[in-house]
Amino acid sequence: MKKKTSLFCVILLPLTLAKGYGQSAGDTLRLTLQQVVEMAKERSIASRQAVTTKETKYWQYRTFRSNYQPQLSLEGTLPNYNKNSTPVVQPDGTIIFQSVHNNNSALNLSFSQTIAATGGTIFGTTQLQRFDDFDRKNTLYNGVPFGIGINQPLFQFNSLRWDKKIEPLKYKESRQAYIESMEQISIQANTYFFDLLQAQVNLQIAETNLVNTENILRIANQKFDMGKVSRNEILQLKLEQLKNEKAVGVARRDMEIAGLNLRSFIGWQDTQYISLLLPVTVSNAKISSDKVLKEAYDNRSDAIAFVRRITEALRDVAKAKGDNGLNASLTAQLGFTKSGTTIPKVYQSPNEQQLVYLSFTIPILDWGRSKSRTKTAEANLQFATYAVEQDKQTFTQAIVTQVTLFEMMKNQLVLTANADSIATEKFQIAKERYVLGNLSITDLSIAFQEKDQAKRDYIGALRDSWASYYQLRFLSLYDFDKNEKIKYL
């Protein structure tokens, strides 16, 4: 009886996940799920792409803002040298080629400011022109010491006013999209984490089963020598041993592949062996559909896009109406102008300058083009309204479904944890009974399979629960554990 007890203790020797399967403790990097997620957010290529996209959207927004800021520019043609022959038409209709040799240079310093409310532009200018006639050896200056004016489109589409409504929405949408990208990285990191964890657990199961099978086979051989078991049972155990050896090889291969995938995603270049720690139970925070929906409509880029899409459709209608019918533009300028043989004379007692002109276009016959454009834009607005309404329903349904799924996953996790505990205890009892000789090899094999499947089911339920939790964070951009909106600097 003493010999049987010592052999039974050998059977119960466990293989733990933390050993690293042949790696020394110093070579092993032990990581939790939260650590893997944070590493992915900080180091992964996906996170760097998200940051780059965010910066691009920021500078695009800055470009938009600059359209409403004062502009100061210097324009010039310097030099404008010309030595040529120019045809000159005579009174009798003949042409004489006249020699031309001159320089006509000009500089213009201008200031402008757009008016978003009207779509017009106010401007100020100062100009100086120099003309050199080298044939006659004289120089003349002409200038506008100061001029101020306005250019105002009439009855036209005002892009500045609509951009002022739409571009801030786009920028806000891009900022929330960045947060969504980071939360999407969390979801991907969770997938890679559990791929490797499942592979490590499978290897642990395979190695443990191999050790147990070898020890059981050793006991069975002793019983066979005493005539207590059949040859068929010995062969069955040897077959199980071969299957377990194969399972160990397959599990090692799968673990290496999963490990490489995780390293690549989180940007970990070190050669340390990664051993994953089993995550604790998923968040116990009470999550209601109403809370998730409220946060989703406050935070998600999709919710902002609903408003933007309708606004863009309204803009297109306004553009279709503004580009049809009467289009006019009023330009007015007041200032001073003067000519002289020297630069100081240009600025001495300049003459008044007044400029007013109105340009317009009135379509008389366009064969219904204007009406067609307007009707098309109005139809697109109606379609956009329906599409947004449908997307809102889908958006809401996805959130309600995910909240329900999350609660189901938490319940499944409790059930699979209990099943895992029961299957493990049942297997221990089965091993004891087999050692004592009152259990068949078939029943022992069934206990093996039930134990392994229960462990895999538990890891799968844990994986689904965390995936559902991160999906809820992604859908709402809200941290339910900290009870605050998710933000990234």
The gist of it:
It is found in: Cell outer membrane. The chain has helices at 2-11, 33-43, 45-66, 159-225, 231-266, 289-299, 301-322, 343-346, 369-436, 441-476; strands at residues 28-31, 71-77, 81-89, 95-115, 120-133, 138-154, 273-276, 327-340, 351-361, 478-479, 484-485.
Describe the model:
- The protein is of the alpha+beta class.
- The chain has two domains: 2-63 and 163-311 and 378-485, Outer membrane efflux proteins (OEP) (Up-down Bundle), CATH 1.20.1600; 73-115 and 120-157 and 327-362, no CATH class.
- The chain has helices at residues 2-11, 33-43, 45-66, 159-225, 231-266, 289-299, 301-322, 343-346, 369-436, 441-476, and strands at residues 28-31, 71-77, 81-89, 95-115, 120-133, 138-154, 273-276, 327-340, 351-361, 478-479, 484-485.
- Strands 2, 3, 4, 5, 6, 8 and 9 form a seven-stranded antiparallel beta sheet that branches. Strands 1-7 form a two-stranded parallel sheet.
- α2 packs across α3, α4 (159-225) packs antiparallel against α10 and α6 (289-299) crosses α7 (301-322).
- The longest helix has 68 residues, at 369-436.
- The two termini are 68 Å apart.
- 21% of the residues are buried.
- Mean pLDDT is 87; it is low at 1-25.
- It is found in: Cell outer membrane.
- Keywords: Cell outer membrane, Membrane, Transmembrane, Transmembrane beta strand, Transport.
- It comes from Chitinophaga flava.
- Belongs to the outer membrane factor (OMF) (TC 1.B.17) family.
